[in-house]
Amino acid sequence: MSTPFLKPPLKWAGGKRWLVSHLKSIWESNGTCRYVEPFCGGLSVVLALQPKHALLNDVNSHLINFYRQVQNGLRMRVQMRNDEALFYRHRQRFNRLIRKGKAHSEEGAQLFYYLNRTCFNGLCRFNKSGDFNVPFGTYSAINYAKDFSNYASLFRQWEFSSKDIETLELEDDDFVYADPPYDVEFTTYSAGGFSWDDQVRTAKRLAAHPGPVMISNQATERIIELYEDFGFELSYLDAPRRISCTGDRTAAREVLAIKN
Ligand SMILES: C[S@@+](CC[C@H](N)C(=O)[O-])C[C@H]1O[C@@H](n2cnc3c(N)ncnc32)[C@H](O)[C@@H]1O
Fold it and tell me: Which CATH number is associated with domain 17-58+159-259?
């Protein structure tokens, strides 16, 4: 039996819940496979599909630590208020834990949750020394969760890992849905440090997987060519976001690449 509708517990850029209606029937026709997301981010897709077995991976180790702590029954004990002074105190404590190698802990997960809800736009950025450096947010009110018991039983069925896509171990019949950071054309390094080279090695790795694969990305010319070259079947969708720089409110074009 599936758990009733659960919203992603964190704010996370690039949520793909809007894609679920397109992915659902393809997933359901493969529904006995293990479900794998190499770039799971905020979990918006897997929380809607609720597979029985899943491997959820993201290179952001603080994000994965938070999900693992939720599996273990995370309860919030740190103070939570939408207050600038408290925010900077908690940010400093979180960075101290990072420096001491102790951020992958229950306290680290509590602080990560508080910072995620309270910081500017729910961004997750670190400076060159590895410190979380997103400033205080601009929200008028924030709803903080006290515990995550409504997620725990579902999360206990799933495995979480924090690896680069290339070292993630897949089983041959895994169903893979990959949502890498968007390709931004005309740059070698896109925001979030995911380069064109990373897009190429992701496509190559997933094209070699014998089981079913779906990839979503921004439909740039070079991404279309890349996925076609690796033998994916492509379809196009209008994303709910807009291309703001053109000022004409054109819907951004998304590509869905499918194989096997
Ligand atoms: C577009 S977001 C995924 C959003 C997710 N589909 C959702 O609906 O919430 C892309 C994710 O890829 C992760 N990422 C970036 N580089 C990675 C890498 N080399 N290996 C694995 N994950 C990576 C980022 O941390 C980010 O969470």
Answer: 3.40.50.150
